[in-house]
Design a protein that fits this description.
10 helices, TIM Barrel, binds NADP nicotinamide-adenine-dinucleotide phosphate, 281 residues, two-stranded antiparallel ribbon, 8-stranded parallel sheet, 38% helix, alpha/beta
Length: 281
């Protein structure tokens, strides 16, 4: 199968989602985000991931508007933050996000975290928004198996996506397998471990073999593992570098070698870990 920057995955409601996009967490408001989105669009990215809590929806919206690219050619994701969860609060938060994004619909709206008590009501609001036609697809983020089990027992609308931290160093195979069994596409965040593990010697050896950088090896591995990726950068050369992964293929043996790097090492403080789990039952 030949992958290109335009390759899509078909979500469980029939919508096509580009398998590659730009992340914007910690992309500063104003020119930093506007430039990053502009450079990404120039480099061929057609999928942008933002969230209310990133405080840059307005800049993403402006950059999309300024680009002159028809709105329907760009897949836009945003998320409802924890303090906006619950049915009415989510509907209100969505209107505010649309206003900042300066658009009349989003392609994908996600429940950012599985907030206790409120998360299923938040989901009900997302279903309403999808029915209203202003959201093309709805999904979740940071949901573990128990959260998905609970959600699926309360709704007929299966999330199209679960956006979770995965990387060579945290692969979450049971959760990934669960999502696939239920028709939920896995979208990876912090695929590059937020830049903290790019000095890995084993990946450097593979980089040399393929004539690619470590970020390119990691991103290509994720794509070949059928995972949607949204690497973030605010540097033009890195935005271009991260997209230059469609002209090589990692062999089956080398894919297995990267699979073997899993050490369940998360860089995101995770609510399901013992010190914080009481908050997130
Ligand atoms: N749903 C959630 O809870 C959640 C949580 C976290 C992230 N996300 C989403 O997922 C996206 C990606 O995750 P992430 O931002 O946490 O981490 P990431 O994409 O793994 O890494 C981003 C970091 O790596 C650096 N970087 C990027 N490309 C590089 C390259 N080619 N060479 C060297 N360094 C490079 C960036 O620096 P510069 O920017 O300085 O270039 C930045 O510090 C986010 O932006 C966000 O959209 C979602």
């Amino acid at each position: 199968m030949t992958l290109t920057i335009a390759s899509t995955v078909s979500l469980n409601n029939g919508i096509a989602m580009p398998r590659f996009g730009l992340g914007t967490f910690l992309s500063g408001p104003g020119s930093q985000t506007k430039n990053a989105v502009r450079w990404a669009l120039e480099a061929g990215y057609r999928h942008i991931d933002t969230a209310r809590i990133y405080d840059n929806e307005k800049d993403v919206g402006e950059a999309l508007g300024d680009s002159g690219i028809p709105r329907k050619e760009v897949f836009l994701t945003t998320k409802v933050w924890n303090d906006d969860q619950g049915y009415e609060a989510t509907l209100k938060a969505f209107e505010a996000s649309l206003g900042r994004l300066q658009t009349d619909y989003v392609d994908l709206y996600l429940v950012h975290w599985p907030v206790p008590v409120l998360r299923n009501e938040t989901w009900r609001a997302l279903v309403t928004l999808q029915e209203s036609g202003r959201v093309r697809a709805i999904g979740v983020s940071n949901f573990m198996i128990r959260h998905l089990d609970e959600l699926l027992s309360t709704t007929k609308v299966v999330p199209v996506v679960n956006q979770i931290e995965t990387s060579p160093f945290i692969q979450r195979r049971p959760l990934v397998d669960y999502c696939r069994r239920h028709g939920i596409v896995v979208e990876s965040y912090s695929t590059l471990s937020r830049g903290k593990r790019l000095d890995d010697e084993r990946l450097a050896v593979l980089g040399k073999k393929y004539g690619k950088t470590v970020p390119q090896i990691i991103l290509r591995w994720a794509l070949q593992s059928a995972i949607v990726i949204i690497p973030k950068s605010v540097h033009r050369e890195r935005i271009i570098e991260n997209a230059a992964i469609f002209d090589f293929e990692i062999s089956t043996a080398d894919m297995a070698a990267i699979d073997a790097l899993d050490e369940n090492c998360s860089i995101m403080p995770a609510p399901w870990e013992p010190e914080t789990s009481a908050m997130w039952r």
